[in-house]
Design brief:
9 strands; 9-stranded mixed sheet; binds S-adenosylmethionine; Rossmann fold; alpha/beta; 12 helices; about 325 residues
Length: about 325
Amino acid sequence: MAAPGRDPFHAGSADEADEAVRGTCEDASVCKRFAVSVGYWKDPYIQYFVRQAKERKAPEINRGYYARVHGISHLLKAFLKKTECNCQVINLGAGMDTMFWRLKDENLLPRKYFEVDFPTIVTRKIYNIKSKPPLSKPIMESHSGESLLIDAHSLDSCRYSIIGADLRSSSELEEKLKKFNMDTQLPTLLITECVLVYMTPQQSASLLKWAASTFQTAMFINYEQVNMADRFGQIMIENLQRRQCNLAGVEVCWSLESQKERLLLNGWETANAIDMMKVYSSLPQADVKRIEGLEFLDEKELLEQLMQHYCISWASKDSSNLGLETITF
Ligand SMILES: C[S@@+](CC[C@H](N)C(=O)[O-])C[C@H]1O[C@@H](n2cnc3c(N)ncnc32)[C@H](O)[C@@H]1O
């Protein structure tokens, strides 16, 4: 129900739509925690952000998450290697992502790691960090100098910042990032993992354009749905709509071509897009063998269909000639 005194079809429904989008943060982290608990990949930190799933997740969902996490981390690490970690990473719509802690454990922290999400999500993340030493200690360890800023809505340390902002307003985003010492001259990696699809095509285009015009040397990694015009895609859309979650940006998710085109039309010099089946096929044989041994999968076809309906696209612009356009799977 919309709040009293509000136009039930506009103000109320916009808030409700945003609330449903924020709800996807919980979905993603619960699924990741479950897959971690089965042994798909190691993440000692996710347990501090989200409860264990009440029911088992299907093996095809777990494998899908494995491919997603592997795919993003493969491209991220390639960028860190090209820049020798002399860079910054900005994870947009980061939710309860734990990459900062995992990179610190591997001694791969960039000069600064930023995360942005809606203020209510950020408040929840910061609350967990403050109350759980395995999360707060690594931040203190990587911090030096002046006292670290941490309140309910933001966290700012030397190497890690969390910012509450709406990604649909680039000016708000830029202002807050600058306040926390974002350096537009540093090679910069921006990540949107299952985020752009919740914005209209105009809003995601304006975010991509802002990123391409703000940083001279940069890479953008995006994970989201693809091939959504077919029957399977339509069912995915209907399932989400049933939970009041509207994929406002679904038009861009028609094909790999439309994904690439959006990047190229919004200021990026090179663009690639591959579906998750391709990512899965690029995994080393030993990894495939290990994860396929974790759970019995009855429905191979369903797994393939699911993987063909998600993709990773990435783009670069490379004024420093670091060779970013050669990054691939
Ligand atoms: C599906 S979740 C993914 C979370 C995380 N990237 C992951 O993959 O685990 C989508 C996230 O994007 C955030 N988000 C979506 N639209 C946003 C916006 N306009 N401004 C800020 N955050 C947004 C949501 O709050 C949510 O945390």
